[in-house]
Amino acid sequence: MKQSIIIIFLLSLWACKKDADSYGIANIYMPQALNVSGGINANYAVPTGTDSSTYNYSIDASTGKLNIILGVAQASTYKSEGYSVNIVTDADTIALLKFNSILDNTTILMPASLYTLPASVSVPAGQSAATFSLGLDIEQLKSSEYEGKKLALAVKIQSTGKFAVASNAAVTIVIVDVDALVIGPSKDISAQYLKNTSTPFTVAGMHSGGRWGTLTDWSANTAAKSHDGFGGYASDEGGTIDMESGWGSPAIHNGKIWQTTGSALPAGTYTLDVSDLDWQGTKDPAYIVVAPGLDTIPDYADIAGNTSIHYTLFSAPKITFTLTEETKVTVGFAVNYVQDEQGFKIYSVKLMNYPKHL
């Protein structure tokens, strides 16, 4: 009896030694279904980062394709003899996610005409993982039809051999943010080119009343300095860029606040983002302005229809613009408050660049 136990024990040791580097359940899975959210969901955002270490796609200029990186892997250290999976899509999954409001109204099913996928992927013996690409046609992606949209596609793997697919990691929900790809991802360069851009803004002087002041690093015309020579700043909520008329304050006709970048911006695509604001009952049109090559912004009456500048209303507080050569740029705000009781408070001004875009 003792001899039999010893023989079994020795055989067990031999088997353990033989498979010492092989353990776990050898299921197949998609790493992208788990890695981004830590298993909370299967969403795979594209783009997912802002620099070369985090891009999850590559661009093939020769074919006009944007290739989103996907993959398959085996979940153990089993020295596999190799395996294959089929690659399919599942429109019903996207429809269900939209029906349950898990995907918002800006998200639509990625049309089949936009993408290519391999029908299958094979992993050779001795390897545990392989990558494949979801290829998107760049010109179609840049179509106005997809502007402001997110495109969703459920990519699913199916086993063709003896190794099972892990059911909780068999599907990756690829969600492509079209705008972020076409003009982004963005990089905040505000601190590099502008000064005094966020709450609490600093001031060069304050009105005796203690609320109104004049901003450092920004210029303001006489109309904007509507409080006995002070203006453009209010101490409200920790200190904001501000122009206000009514509620005891004087009217502001052709009030302007502006700042020129400290150095020239390289050729490229940019966004001036002033969305962090409180738009206080503005009744007369108020403008956010980008003026390339100028050291000020035009007067209020010279903004609408001016093709030498870029401008928008405070109701849509972002301006995306492209420079074809190195240029200094002036950014600012212009109002003509004729009607009573209106104004704005700005909490931050951001200048964004898009170092990698389509």
Automatic annotation (TrEMBL):
Output the Pfam families linked to this UniProt entry: BT_3987-like_N (PF08522), DUF5013 (PF16405)
Query: For the BT-3987-like N-terminal domain, which residue ranges apply?
Result: 52-161
Q: Could you tell me which InterPro entries the record lists for this protein?
A: BT_3987-like_N, DUF5013
Superkingdom of the source species: Bacteria
In what residue span(s) does the DUF5013 domain sit? 195-332
Q: What's the protein here called?
A: DUF5013 domain-containing protein
- What organism does this protein naturally occur in? Chitinophaga silvisoli
